[in-house]
Amino acid sequence: MNPIEIAVVGYGYWGPNLVRNFHETEGARMAVCCDLDPQRLARAHRRFPGVECTSDYDAVLRNPAIAAVAIATPVSAHFAMARRALEAGKHVLVEKPLTMRVDHAEELVALAEQKGLVLMVDHVFLYSPAVRKMKELVETGHLGRLFFIDSVRINLGLFQHDVNVVWDLAPHDLSIVDHLIGRLPKSLSAFGATHAGSDIEDVAYLNLDYGDGLIANFHVNWLSPVKVRHIIVGGSKQSLIYNDLETSEKVKVYNRGIDVGADSDKKHQLLISYRAGDVWSPNLPQEEPLNRLAADFVRCIREGSRPLADGSSGLRIVRILDAAQRSIKAQGGRIVL
Fold first, then answer.
1. Of 292, 248, 330, 315, whose CA–CA distance to 124 is shortest?
2. How far is CA 243 from each of CA 173, 231, 234, 240, 272, rounded to the nearest angstrom?
3. Residue 328 — φ and ψ, nearest 5°?
4. Closest CA to 130 of 280, 272, 241
5. Containing H/E element for 334?
6. Do the beta carbons of residue 236 and residue 225 sit within 8 Å?
7. Alpha-carbon Rg of the chain, whole angstroms?
8. DSSP codes of every residue in 55-68
9. 63-74 in b/e burial notation, b at 16+ Cβ within 10 A?
10. DSSP track, 87-151
11. Which of 154, 23, 182 minimizes the C-alpha distance to 7?
């Protein structure tokens, strides 16, 4: 079968990783790298001499050999570039978040559906061995009923100029939680603050209510002196901690928690007993998540199937981000989704 020819648009921070992985993906041909910066194109040409380099996005879209476009530009350009690619009949992979507006994300999802094209969002953590194991533990009932999720993604970070810290960092962990739970929260509240002389929040806290007693909290921060990347998922049977900075034991499962009983003589008096069992860490394969994502994109194009990180999942994350932004501007006002 002929390889699927792919163009990567944007060779800045994330683009080189996309070019490398599509270059190594079976069934794909990394054909074109597009960027407006001549120096970036020169770097791409030196590293991948067989890849055509151009600054002409129109020429990419007119090229009938190009089947798919991967967009790794600033988020403000995602919608216009993705829409043009879909209208040109190209399958599209978009860096997270999908768009900056809910209506724009809805339009892209509808356009891809109408044209029978693959629309995928680069929620790369969904393809990591750790998150795949977490999904397995939730689906098989090992954790029992989920009670709470706490997420922290902080570092002395790379300040963005077009989006705040919520739009920059929160999509990673929001996409993980969305993948684990499979539904939108019922409501959310968010707080943020600015400290760098602009109106762009650099510290923020989000609280999401999923109903049935499940709440999720997210802390994102560009000002932290230390880098932290962890998620705690608490369940009625067991709990887990996912630490992305761990090299060998990224997921640890704890048989610790509480058991709730009732005194038969005092119907309204709960009896709480504490459980302190074993801690174990599942063996996880050493794989690059972006490589699996690239392979899934190519497979879905070839088979006409739906990717794990499809446009609908990207739309759900944009809905949450939009609601969080409105809540921050309303001083933490509760937003119903």
1. 292
2. 12, 7, 15, 10, 29
3. -60, -45
4. 241
5. none
6. no
7. 22
8. S-HHHHHH-TTEEE
9. beebbbbbbbbe
10. HTT-EEEEPSSS-SSHHHHHHHHHHHHHHT--EEE--GGGGSHHHHHHHHHHHTTSS-SEEEEEE
11. 23
Rounded to whole angstroms, the Cα distance separating 30 from 24 reads 8
Name the 3-class secondary structure at 289: helix
Which residues sit opposite 259 in a β-bridge? 273
For residue 138, give Cα distances in angstroms to 93, 221, 291: 28, 28, 24
Domain ranges within the chain, ordered by starting residue? 4-124+301-308
List the end-to-end C-alpha distance of the chain, in Å, as a whole number: 45
- 90-146 residue pLDDT tens: 999 999 999 999 999 999 999 999 999 999 999 999 999 999 999 999 999 999 999
pLDDT tens by residue, 151-207? 999 999 778 888 899 999 999 999 999 999 999 999 999 999 999 878 899 999 999
* CA nearest to 102, candidates 324, 302, 308, 333: 324
Place of tokens 């043009």: 84
The Cα–Cα gap between 60 and 78 comes to 16
CA distance 52 to 123: 27
Q: How far apart are CA 188 and CA 291, in angstroms?
A: 33
- The model carries a pTM of 0.93
Q: In this structure, are residues 95 and 285 in contact, taking their beta carbons and an 8 Å threshold?
A: no
Alpha carbons 136 and 150: distance in angstroms, whole number: 19
* Domain 4-124+301-308 class, CATH top level: alpha beta
